[in-house]
Q: What sequence folds into this?
């Protein structure tokens, strides 16, 4: 067992940290306040190679491993989890899906611009009545011979407006239930696609979330991913890997909150000594550190398993559930340590707390992760 | 034209400084090492000159033990073409300049940060120029090529100065030479592994100085809060304690 990071992995961590602490920090509060998409940052991060980190350089990616991806997302999320989620979706849902299951033509046409960050992608699975239970797809994709016609509504779609390429999950053969579901590459400017209003979210406010309506949207047959009926399996396999991204994001949020708490505790005085010298506060920080270290180990273990082509279902679910839940706990305590200052926006920790909440919900709630973990243990 | 950028391996600027050996040596335990910030700016300017055309190669060089290779790799990831590590501990400025003089003779332009952020020596660049018998200009805040000459901007007391200098040249650069250091792109990080990092044996040279003693600055005094209605007390404190009035 070797816990040492390679020189390259350390350099990527440092590059992500430098960009976050030098650039993202500048306007993170304003973007959160006004819900502004980080267009400039996404372009810069794409130039640095963050939009297709794990994609082969032949298809426009950076050819890095998943460990590097965890390290990068942690560093970015410490400062700005909204920007991190835009990157996470593009990398671990859209690019990963196309890289693993796309045809050569699909990769050339869509993966190359996505992985190099010329365009960004979105993953359209959730529906008004199909969130945690993703098999209940009401969006239909009717087979018309040489093309499909898609109708329906997708909900809570991150990157919905900023993306040019969608991966859409829809039902083709309802009688086959989840085995009738397909996945499609759909260009956002296809006739018949309309967007709902920008969701006014509690946190992650700099990422753009909309519902997307499909009305007789024509999709060529060559844009279906995999064999007929592969869509549900595709979605599940993609989400399994995607959880590592969100787990790392939650880890970064928690680490960011702890770093701010440590700095504050060393500076702020109460009853004649710094907060750091009060055991009540020092122990809170110790608890944070232990939880964060556990979360980091789970994230890195899941990433290592993925890099070594081993099963990740349980490991990624554990990482996501634990990291998200401790991010909520750690950020709540960070606000507590900051007292009144923690409750105002200038000190960032209330934003981190709002951001942490979403990591327990999207890409599979904490409860769904527990279903995944317990099913594995309790199966006959 | 070939550019050599001198790279010092220094502790991260947020490092808590401690000494060992009865305050005669810096305690390097647990220290995170980085490229000296001025050298990083020098490398950025070298990259800009190369992108503008006319530069054949950028080499980065360092005198240090194996631990400094991570810093050289980062310089390669940022965009240098190759790296040289002279295998010896960096004992003092003369020792370092003597070592560098053995590998620096092929370069038309040598960029050195004005000082390293650890010992603030401000000596290697000038000594190297002397050993090589090259022109040297210090406190350079801008550099451009004009045919076979270099156009140099310097900040001087109360204004600025523009010089035209013939090469080969050692330019000792300071803030302003480039806007900000570059973050290495992932492609650069991957390519860094494949770029040459040549380890060169040290030559016989002797240091001319040795450390006698280090002292940490006195700890910062605690912050005193004065109530807003007590302006008089504030003035007294500023006058008598802080002695700034």
A:
């Amino acid at each position: 067992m070797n816990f040492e990071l390679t020189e390259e992995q350390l350099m990527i961590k440092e590059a992500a940290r430098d960009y976050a602490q030098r650039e993202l920090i500048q306007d993170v509060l304003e973007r959160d306040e006004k819900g502004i998409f980080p267009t400039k940052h996404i372009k810069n991060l794409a130039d640095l190679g963050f939009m297709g980190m794990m994609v082969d350089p032949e298809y426009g990616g950076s050819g890095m491993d998943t460990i590097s991806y965890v390290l990068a997302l942690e560093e970015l999320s410490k400062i700005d989890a909204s920007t991190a989620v835009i990157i996470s979706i593009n990398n671990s849902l859209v690019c990963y899906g196309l890289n693993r299951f796309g045809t050569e033509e699909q990769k050339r046409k869509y993966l190359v611009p996505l992985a190099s960050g010329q365009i960004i992608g979105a993953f359209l699975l959730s529906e008004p009545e199909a969130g945690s239970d993703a098999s209940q797809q009401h969006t239909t994709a009717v087979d018309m011979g040489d093309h499909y016609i898609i109708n329906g509504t997708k909900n809570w779609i991150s990157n919905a407006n900023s993306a040019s390429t969608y991966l859409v999950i829809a039902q083709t053969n309802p009688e086959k239930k989840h085995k009738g579901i397909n996945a499609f590459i759909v260009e956002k400017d296809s006739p018949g696609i309309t967007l709902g209003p920008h969701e006014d979210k509690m946190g992650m406010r700099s990422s753009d979330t909309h519902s997307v309506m499909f009305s007789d949207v024509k999709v060529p047959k060559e844009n279906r991913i995999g064999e007929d009926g592969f869509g549900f399996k595709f979605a599940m396999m993609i989400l399994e890997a995607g959880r590592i991204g969100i787990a790392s994001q939650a880890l970064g949020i928690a680490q960011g909150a702890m770093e701010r708490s440590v700095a504050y505790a060393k500076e702020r005085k109460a009853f004649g000594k710094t907060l750091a010298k009060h055991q009540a506060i020092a122990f809170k920080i110790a608890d944070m550190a232990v939880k964060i270290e556990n979360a980091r180990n789970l994230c890195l273990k899941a990433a290592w398993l993925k890099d070594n082509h081993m099963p990740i279902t349980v490991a990624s679910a554990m990482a996501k559930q634990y990291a998200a839940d401790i991010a909520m706990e750690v950020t709540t305590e960070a606000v507590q340590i900051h007292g009144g200052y923690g409750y105002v926006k200038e000190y960032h920790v209330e934003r981190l707390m709002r951001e942490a909440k979403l990591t327990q919900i999207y890409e599979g709630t904490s409860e769904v992760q527990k279903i995944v973990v317990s099913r594995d243990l309790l199966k006959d | 034209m070939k550019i050599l950028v001198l790279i010092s391996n220094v502790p991260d600027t947020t490092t808590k400084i401690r000494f060992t050996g009865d305050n005669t040596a810096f305690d390097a335990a647990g220290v995170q090492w980085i490229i000296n910030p001025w050298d990083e700016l020098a490398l950025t300017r070298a990259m800009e000159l190369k992108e503008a055309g006319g530069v054949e190669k950028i080499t980065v060089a360092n005198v240090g033990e194996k631990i400094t290779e991570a810093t050289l790799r980062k310089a390669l990831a940022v965009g240098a073409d190759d790296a040289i590590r002279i295998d010896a501990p960096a004992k003092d400025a003369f020792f370092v300049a003597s070592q560098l003089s053995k590998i620096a003779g092929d370069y038309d332009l040598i960029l050195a940060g004005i000082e390293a952020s650890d010992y603030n020596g401000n000596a290697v660049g000038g000594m190297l120029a002397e050993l090589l018998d090259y022109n040297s200009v210090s406190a350079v805040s801008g550099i451009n090529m004009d045919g076979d000459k270099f156009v140099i901007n310097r900040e001087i007391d109360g204004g600025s100065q523009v010089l035209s200098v013939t090469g080969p040249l050692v330019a000792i650069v300071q803030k302003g030479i480039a806007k900000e250091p570059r973050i290495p792109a992932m492609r650069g990080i991957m390519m860094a592994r494949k770029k040459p990092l040549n380890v060169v044996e040290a030559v016989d040279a002797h240091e001319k100085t040795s450390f006698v003693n280090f002292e940490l600055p006195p700890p910062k005094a605690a912050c005193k809060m004065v109530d807003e209605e007590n302006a008089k007390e504030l003035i007294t404190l500023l006058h008598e304690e802080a002695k700034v009035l």
